[in-house]
Amino acid sequence: MSRGQREERQTRPAFDAALLHEVGEHFAAGYMACPDETPVVRMAEGVAAYLEHCVLPEYRGEVVYPCGPGIYWRGAAVEWHYSSSMTWNDDLLQRKIAEASGRANAALQALREALKEYPRVGGYTHSIPHYGRILREGLDSYAARIEVGRRTAEARGERGRLDFYRAMARVLEGIQSFCERVVQHVKATRFQDECRRLRRKRLLQALRRVPRKPARNCYEALVAMNFIWYLDGSDNYGRFDQELFPYYEADLTAGRVVPEEVTDWIRQLWDNVDACSAWNVALGGLLADGASGINEVTHLCLQAAHGKRRPNLALRLHQGASERIWDDALDCIETGNGLPALYNEEAYIAAIRGAHLGVRESDLPWFAFGGCTELMVHGRSNVGSLEGDINLPLILVETQERALASSRTFDDFKAAYKDDVRRWVRRLTETWNANQERKARWQPQVMRSLLIDDCLENGREYNAGGARYNWCVVNVMGLANVIDSLAAIREVVFEHQEVNGERLASVLAADFEGHEPLRQRLARCPRFGNAEPVTDALAEEISEFVFRELLQYAPWRGGKYLPSCLMFTTYARFGEPVRATADGRKAGEPIADSAGAVQGRDVSGPTALLSSVAKIKHHLAPGTLVVNARFSKKFFTDRETRRKLKELVQTYFELGGMQLQINVVDQALLRDAYEHPERHKNLIIRVGGYSEYWIRLDDALRRTILERTEHEG
């Protein structure tokens, strides 16, 4: 068995699976029933047992099934998850123990004891199944691929690979059982309403075929993708428009569908993504021959997303993209949901090539995004996303305390900061690599080993490096805080010598207590995001240094550590351990919410903001540098203001910017929402890397959103 997967078989008593099934612990019943097997086999038994016994969601007459919340979160204490493989809620498990009696109580207590041996491993993993392959070939055909691999492993005497193929066969068996159970479940449902009866009839016809057999039309393709998305744990759809378009085009030409009908179907999928708080869909972009990948389904996807919180639409815009796609994108953004985020197609392609990730030219057009917007390849990759975080202001505090008093020049202090960053990066990558090795050993991801190329052909499990492409995306946080702090230190300490380094270090350590005038003086120093040469030069220098430091390290599983800035809703939490910084920020306050300016500090207009942000070395951070910008509704009032907004984004892309996400929300409305959140339950805000309901944000996040600069048209 390859790379850290030499699990020792230990003979232990098997759990009574029937008892665990009885108390609703279906995954645990399978996993614990074979304690002498390797983790990959045990995980497969757990997944299969769950699919064979879980309570199915209610069918309410929708056009697809499953619908609503994910199929793996149905009240069990021990669950399968697409990132951690197996996870459990200890509080829920203890409640179940307290409520159970007799043999069931003993089984649950034994389960809790056994789980103490299972290590929790850091790092998160989003991914994208190879939907198109499943649509073309059908899942039943995967049995032949498994058998070919099994025979080869058997002939070579490769015990580890034999276990892997045995696990894959068991997962496929569980999926086949789940498909049959779903058909019977939908068949048993009755409706009085004629529309729902017709939907049920059509859905049953599709489910009797897909995803086990190849899809024959647009509806079957859409039903199959929804089904696989739920099987995978409700994560990402990837290049959805590219996978669905051939079926849509054929049906449209033959007169079997109309655009409005398919838009309604897609809208149902988007509702499912929202119900699961799930993730990303990449739209548009280029094809392998260089032609535009923006097609009719791309437009339908945008139209279906009006006013929706999810999915996190990522629109890949190439040079020469049509006015129609820009109009559809701006129409959707105008609804206030922050969707779609806009991506610079040519810059991403160049950055992927420049990062030397080994992506084949034929696969390059299939780059997509997972989660917030972590770079990956649709159906072919395992990307640690996010593998970990590096908090740049936290490191700066360490440098302030260690070196500010002793630094004779600004360059001395800057060099000391770089030394600290270098040391942190080395230490963090060692931790992340250890996590990956432990994940391969203890957390095999059997569903994705089946659904993502080339695990079956390699005979290697997904977390052990079986996917075609392996790299990791790392969150680089608080870059703008560091830029502003360094600019302030240079001006106040070294250029104007208003205070010395020792004095400033002591003031920062005291969190500015009794020194408000000095804090205000620091706040008057140049701020990143205003086309200030001082801060722009620091942005260019520091970003290049940090990104290159990360890029020189290789993950245990392969590839590289790709820098990103994906703060989603965590920028307030990650500011909590950071003591006062020289930009005037007090201890515990939020850090920057994106790779752009610290919220509220970009006061010179949108052109200045994007000009500054473009100085960051975006091409060295293809993991994705999320950039938040808030624009007034005045930008959407007529064709002329829309044209200006489009040209602003295009100029930003020409300068090297790679991603931009736009909030359109009135400041007066935000103030009312802050005072009366109960009145604004449907208000959607683009936060860090995705959109979220205002009502779900905590007070610190709401305040930072109020602080964001609203750029006028």
How far apart are the termini? 60 Å
Overall 3D geometry? Answer: globular
Outline the biggest β-sheet.
6 strands, mixed
Tell me the fraction of residues in β-strands, as a range: 5-15%
| Secondary structural class | alpha/beta
Secondary structure tally, helices: 27
Residue runs with pLDDT of under 50 for 5 or more positions:
1-11
Spatial arrangement of strands, main beta sheet: 4-5-6-14-13-17
Q: Report helical residue fraction.
A: 40-55%
Computed over alpha carbons, the radius of gyration is 26 Å
Mean pLDDT: 94
The number of strands is 17
Task: Describe what this molecule looks like in 3D.
The chain has 713 residues and is α/β, with parallel strands linked by helices. It is built from 27 helices and 17 strands. Strand 11, helix 24 (606-613) and strand 12 form a beta-alpha-beta unit. Helix 10 (218-231) packs parallel to helix 12, helix 13 runs parallel beside helix 14 and helix 16 (392-403) packs across helix 17. The protein is globular. The N and C termini lie far apart (60 Å). Mean pLDDT is 94; it is low at 1-11.
Task: Detail the topology: elements first, then pairings.
Blueprint: H1 17-22, H2 26-32, H3 39-53, E1 78-81, E2 85-88, H4 90-99, H5 102-115, E3 125-126, H6 131-137, H7 142-156, H8 159-187, H9 194-207, H10 218-231, H11 240-254, H12 259-275, E4 280-284, H13 296-304, E5 312-317, H14 323-337, E6 341-344, H15 345-354, E7 367-370, E8 374-377, E9 381-391, H16 392-403, H17 410-442, H18 446-451, H19 455-458, E10 469-477, H20 479-495, H21 501-509, H22 516-523, H23 533-551, E11 561-565, H24 606-613, E12 624-625, E13 628-631, H25 639-654, E14 659-663, H26 667-675, E15 684-686, E16 691-693, H27 699-707, E17 710-711
Parallel strand pairs: 4-5, 5-6, 9-10, 10-11, 11-12, 13-14, 13-17
Antiparallel strand pairs: 1-2, 3-9, 6-14, 7-8, 15-16
